[in-house]
């Protein structure tokens, strides 16, 4: 970054404290250089679905179960959502269409079994389906 963009990631507070770094020459001093941190990310579109979109994820930070597609996991409507019911994930909000129950097949030590989740929010387009660990522990 320093050689290519002439930037070390740090703000220069005043010109007498700023140093010039030339990495093309061997540095013979033992001074350490604080380079700052850099973040890189890629933004692109894909024809493939997000790999967790169809999955059920156990979430220890969620206080609600969330289903993102009505046809998934035997979702059954039980009560309509209010006009202000929303789920927030980061800075994005997703409207809740309705609430219902979901039956999930899970593998246990004794083989396969079923868990019925109640009061599951249906939020079409949400990034994944969530099972709230908090609600499981409470029940």
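^ Assign residues to that structure.
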């Amino acid at each position: 970054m320093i050689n290519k963009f002439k930037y070390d990631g740090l703000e220069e507070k005043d010109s007498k404290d700023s140093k010039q770094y030339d990495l093309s020459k061997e540095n013979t001093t033992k001074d350490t250089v604080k380079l700052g941190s850099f973040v890189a990310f890629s933004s692109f579109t894909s024809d493939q679905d997000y790999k967790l979109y169809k999955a059920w994820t156990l979430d220890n930070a969620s206080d609600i179960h969330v289903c993102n597609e009505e046809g998934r996991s035997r979702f059954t409507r039980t009560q309509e959502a209010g006009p202000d019911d929303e789920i927030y994930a980061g800075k994005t909000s997703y409207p809740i269409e309705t609430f219902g129950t979901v039956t999930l097949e899970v593998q246990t030590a004794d083989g396969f079994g079923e868990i019925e989740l109640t009061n599951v929010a249906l939020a079409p387009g949400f990034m994944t389906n969530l099972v709230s660990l908090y609600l499981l522990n409470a029940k």
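The chain has a mean pLDDT of 77.
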